[in-house]
Write a structure and sequence with these properties.
This protein is α+β, with helices and mostly antiparallel strands. It has a single domain, classed as CNF1/YfiH-like putative cysteine hydrolases (4-Layer Sandwich). Helix content is 21%, strand content 28%. Strands 1-2-3-16-8-4-6 form a 7-stranded mixed β-sheet. Strand 1 and strand 2 form a beta hairpin. It is globular. The chain binds zinc ion (ZN). Zinc ion (ZN) binds next to loops.
């Protein structure tokens, strides 16, 4: 069964949520689509990402609509300037909540145990990895393209939750969001070889084509890495960004001229830890 549920809000915004996380209460999750925003041309219509050619006021309006649709009101945003690396940062100082947006440079993962701290990453083929430890009340979000995946960004996020908050991997639920899938993710032999030197099970997750290139299942690689890290459950979305042209942006399909989906997660409180 598809673990990401497509929600159609009254204000016209379509977004995904993760019901298996939200049934615990006390948190909200989203992965945006391109439907329900105000941007035009290649950003039509719900571009969530700044740092593009899109007009800042359109991005701001799109984000406002998403928060309204998901029902997120008071929050500080923790935003990582992704670099396809493997650094995971941690936000745990109450002082930071004085700020409206906290931008962290040079990181691809972020974790917190603070309520009302919205974690955000941006995507247009690369995977969003969501983590939730309901026992310790900790959340994390990471951005995993092939480079981050070859550097084990997923297991490193689990390590960070463990080191900073004492999370037991067996208590952690993980979910892998919509992204480029086996059907569309073709890579050259150099990428395949590079991958195989870091991840011995690459052969299980890729096959060679007649043209000498490879089709690679990045979702499965992340799933295996997280299972090996001891995560109790890994949910995997079947949605492919490149196939779903009406619903999702795809950097590869649109040859770089495209918008971004936002992945988000926030602890909203009202739930006793360990419940
Ligand atoms: Zn596809």
């Amino acid at each position: 069964m598809e673990p990401f549920s497509l929600e159609k809000a009254e204000n016209g915004v379509w977004y995904f949520s993760i019901p298996a996380f939200e049934r615990y209460g006390g948190l909200k999750t989203f992965f945006t689509t391109r439907i329900g925003g105000v941007s035009t041309e290649e950003f039509t219509s719900l571009n969530f990402g700044g740092y593009t050619r899109d007009l800042p006021q359109n991005v701001a309006e799109n984000r406002k609509r998403v928060m309204e649709a998901v029902g997120i009101h008071d929050y500080t945003e923790g935003f990582v300037r992704q670099v396809h690396g493997d650094r995971v940062c941690c936000i745990q100082s109450k002082d930071i909540l004085e700020e409206k947006t906290l931008t962290i440079n040079n990181a691809d993962g972020i974790t917190t145990n603070l309520e009302n701290m919205l974690l955000v990453t941006l995507h247009a083929d690369c995977l969003a990895l969501y983590f939730f430890d309901p026992v310790k009340g900790v959340i994390a979000l990471s951005h995993a393209g092939w480079r981050g995946t070859s550097k084990y960004i997923g297991p490193k996020t689990v390590d960070k939750m463990q080191a900073e908050f004492g999370s037991d991997p067996q208590d952690i639920l993980a979910a892998i969001g919509p992204g480029i899938s086996l059907c569309c993710f073709e890579v050259g032999p150099e990428v395949y070889e590079e991958f195989r030197s870091h991840f011995p099970q690459t052969d299980r997750c890729a096959y060679r084509k007649d043209n000498g290139k490879y089709m690679m299942d990045l979702k499965k690689i992340n799933q295996i890495q997280l299972e090996e890290a001891g995560v109790s459950e890994v949910l995997v979305s079947g949605y492919c960004t490149m196939c779903e042209d009406k619903l999702l942006f795809s950097h590869r399909r649109d040859q770089g001229r495209t918008g971004r989906m936002g992945a988000g997660m926030i602890l909203t409180g009202g739930r006793p830890k360990g419940a």
